[in-house]
Amino acid sequence: LQERCKLNLLKKFQHVNKVITNQGNPTLLNEIYTELYITEGDSGKVNNEHEVRQIEAASRRAAAEETPIKCNDIFKPLSEEDKPIRSVLTKGVAGIGKTVSVQKFILDWAEGKTNQDVHLIFPLPFRELNLMEDRNLSLMELLHFFFKEIKETNISSLDKVLFIFDGLDECRFPLDFQNTVRLCDVTESASVHVLLINLIKGNLLPSALIWITSRPAAADQIPSECVHRLTEVRGFNDPQKEEYFRKRNNDQSLSNRIITHLKSLRSLYIMCHIPVFCWISATVLERMLGEAESGEIPKTLTQMYTHFLIIQTNVIKKKYTKSRETDTEMVLKLGKLAFQQLMKGNLIFYEEDLMECGIDVTEASVYSGVCTQIFREDFGLHQSKVYCFVHLSIQEHLAALYVHLTFKNKMRNVFIKPALQKLMLKVTISDVHKSAVDQALQSENGHLDLFLRFLLGLSLKSNQILLQTIVRQTGSSSHSNQETVHYIKEKIRENPSTEKSINLFHCLYELDDHSLVEGVQHYLQSGNLQQSELSSSQWSAVVFVLLTSMQEQDVFVLNKYTNKHCTSDEVLLKLLPVVAASRKAQFNNCGLNEKSCAALASVLRSESSNLRELDLSENKLRDSGVKCLSAGLENPHCKLETLRLCYCDISDEGCAALTSALRSNPSHLRELDLTQNKLRDSGVKCLSAGLENPHCKLETLRLCYCDISDEGCAALTSALRSNPSHLRELDLSKNNLRDSGVKCLSAVLENPHCKLETLRLCYCDISDEGCAALTSALRSNPSHLRELDLSRNNLRNSGVKCLSAVLENPHCKLETLRLRVCNISDEDCAALTSALRSNPSHLRELVLSWNNLRDSGVKRLSAVLENPHCKLETLRLCNCGVSDEGCAALTSALRSNPSHLRELDLSVNKLRDSGVKCLSAVLENPHCKLETLRLRAFNISDEGCAALTSALRSNPSHLRELDLSGNNLRDSGVKCLSAVLENPHCKLETLRLCDCDISDEGCAALTSALRSNPSHLRELDLSGNKLRDSGVKCVSAVLENPHCKLETLRLCYCDISDEGCAALTSALRSNPSHLRELDLSGNKLRDSKKKQLFSLKLQNLRL
Known about the structure:
Layout: H1 2-13, E1 15-16, E2 27-28, H2 29-32, E3 38-40, H3 51-58, E4 87-91, H4 98-110, E5 120-123, H5 126-129, E6 136-137, H6 139-146, E7 161-165, E8 190-191, H7 192-201, E9 209-214, E10 229-233, H8 238-248, H9 252-263, H10 266-271, H11 275-289, H12 301-319, H13 327-344, E11 348-349, H14 351-356, H15 361-370, E12 375-379, E13 385-389, H16 392-410, H17 418-422, H18 429-442, H19 449-458, H20 461-467, H21 482-493, H22 498-510, H23 515-526, H24 536-548, E14 555-557, H25 568-574, H26 576-581, E15 584-586, H27 594-605, E16 613-615, H28 622-633, E17 642-644, H29 652-664, E18 671-673, H30 680-691, E19 700-702, H31 710-722, E20 729-731, H32 738-749, E21 758-760, H33 768-780, E22 787-789, H34 796-807, E23 816-818, H35 826-838, E24 845-847, H36 854-865, E25 874-876, H37 884-896, E26 903-905, H38 912-923, E27 932-934, H39 942-954, E28 961-963, H40 970-981, E29 990-992, H41 1000-1012, E30 1019-1021, H42 1028-1039, E31 1048-1050, H43 1058-1070, E32 1077-1079, H44 1087-1094, E33 1100-1102
Parallel strand pairs: 4-9, 4-10, 5-7, 7-9, 14-15, 15-16, 16-17, 17-18, 18-19, 19-20, 20-21, 21-22, 22-23, 23-24, 24-25, 25-26, 26-27, 27-28, 28-29, 29-30, 30-31, 31-32, 32-33
Antiparallel strand pairs: 1-2, 3-10, 6-8, 11-13, 12-13
Helix pairs in contact: 1-4, 9-11, 11-12, 12-19, 13-16, 16-19, 18-19, 18-21, 19-22, 21-22, 21-24, 22-24, 23-24, 27-28, 28-29, 29-30, 30-31, 31-32, 32-33, 33-34, 34-35, 35-36, 36-37, 37-38, 38-39, 39-40, 40-41, 41-42, 42-43, 43-44
């Protein structure tokens, strides 16, 4: 029996529908099948927007977030799951490949390749079950009707059978799961819908597997409790699109041209997620880009589908020369059918639907015979006839063509009843367009959106000229679309939903009107958005441009769009759809309040939101704002991974609301930053209850400066002992933990399941006793920690010795060690450097600033640095009592091993010019890759500066940051430095020269160099120098250069008056797009000049 069934299914499913292949002969599915992207799905919530919009939204989703499933594995549980999967519901938009997936699954089973534990497969498409709607029969009778070969079989005796119900959206009978009678006997008669519901519920054949496919809008007909796995066919991802075009055509050069053309048009390339659209595009572009045809290559959807229709009608002429009908008559009849059924929401039709449109069965057979790539006549399992267009979008295009031609040839508006139309004096094309726009806007599920794009696109003269080759148009083609364009812009102004307004912008694109979008693009590109008062239409255009830009929307920064005419809260509400489409949203220091939190909660609750990282730091949200936000965080649709709420004025009350939300939805959040909020021990205790949840996967927790004592630390570490394996970074700096708190924490660290990589405990009142407990734990479990910061704790000699015992352990992989202000002497440094000599290869960053190391300590350290196994990249020895003797030892070591160090900070050491000269010998070494050099308050004169700049001229291309603040460089030193800056190989990004005794003369030399090479510098600090207005005017000349990319400018206490301020304001108006921070503190500026600066709407302005 099984072999007979396999043979019959093999015959039926081994060939691809000839519609979607080039060849006239049948093509084997296995020859051209491209694996589709199927993912484990969502909650099954209905998405009330046109499927093309759903495809556009899905294209922005990151594939890494989803669980891909191969078609043949849809009944296999994932590794973590125990329960077997009995029923699967697969969603996907029209033409995405649901039926082909079903076909491939059946074919692989019939060929004995996969799922051989299934005894029999019964494919029962809804389009065929519709024909049985009025019949009463048992499940056995239904199966005998469709599958003759199982006539004598008792189906209840079979181990495992699979029922496949393809096309739930095509079902024309009701599915009432609440009120349908229970049926358990396979021989008991009932109507088809009763049989179906009892099969799905598991009352009939409880061991049977069920697979249902559906378009998204119909999927909610199946209750969630009846679905064990929800999957979604996403169609082709980007590599699969290219694979399709390359497999389809042997001419790889042509395939490459097709791919390049589609990639250049984002809206068309997104549509290629749908396999049927790939086929339509390939059919057209193979002709247009090959030798067969010439003319303008299609750039819009309307052009693509119109070319497709022309190609198919030309095929028909060659294939069916005896046709008594003209092309126009055939297109009109099919168009009428397409339009009438589209308005009813039908994709498949039966004989009675055809007769309504004046098409008899014979004509339908002729159409399906000659228009095989437009219109299909299917014979079901029982040879019953069902009709459909090859794809919904072809139906929508033909429907639009029918409406267009009815107006052109009969001057009739199909949206208005004939009786009403007689009362109208004259119908214009604008009337038809307005009616269509109104109907599309009224549609709840957007089912007329694509139809509207096609209808408006067909009114363009270029498309009408194309149409002349296949259809007769008797009306005048000379009309203006300006009235339609004006009407659409009016509708956009009325602010419909985001989905509706985005479709209206697509309509303007089809009408070749780009004025609104280009105006907004100009604002965005020039940086003038912050100075401009935008209308509601322009804000909608900003949303459209950002959502459809070529770059995938990754980071949304609110401050880029804040506008002096709108508050930050108002801008956020206008751009909320862009936030939902972005992966990261940066709202730090935007002046947001509780209202914004409520709006963001709606984004977090949205099933389609892409938002994974949210930074709301430095906004006075308070507890009320966090409570609003928590309403979104607790929603199971919320997939937020990173949440930053530093400096948000949150107390333990807000923390309680936040942790309650995280307990409800604990599995997604990976990073939480609550730095500098008054959480206190009570807040941390609430948070701890969330952390001990085994579903909590938090990897980074920052609670710096949160008023936590050893009591709060004890609660936190108790939670981490319960669930230790996920946390990777913990920052408890600036809390009064004391030794008792650190001892609690050490009990977590010694747990072998603890995988903590970063631990920051600065300023926590830890002594050598606490350090001993900590290092004892690290000796037990040394291999995971990569970063340790114990700065500003009184570790003393004994603490450093304990720490050194960890560092010399060969299993210790510590890469960053910060011990700033830890009361370490040169003697303590001996133990530390001895450990590093034993195990030198891992450490990348060492910070020992503000410890009394003196020259002897630095000499010991130098012995580590000259070791060829030492890979140290960052060394900070600020204020360590080092003289030029210690500097000589250090630079000697760096000459031996120069290629690793990237950052060196020797600020506030009295090295003088002789020390700088030693350092310069390292810098001019071509193997030296130093990127950051800080020599603040180094006692350098213009002589030392000359030696330094000479070295940098020899090797200018690596240095990115130079800080020489607090040195007596004077104008002569700055002139030397300027010679480096004007070198085109110089890539310096940050230059700090505060308090360097520079006048306007030195400033002129500096800015002259920057005018020669303006494009790299991002930060310039000239505070505390007597630049005066003449110096600031020189700086302004750099700022107005369009190549200048400066983001931060600090000119505090520079003796600047209103005159200099005016020059600066003028320059920033000329080139406003880059500067983010301007500090003019300590200058005597009048209020009128300050107002002018405030009008520039910089992210950070200090006056």
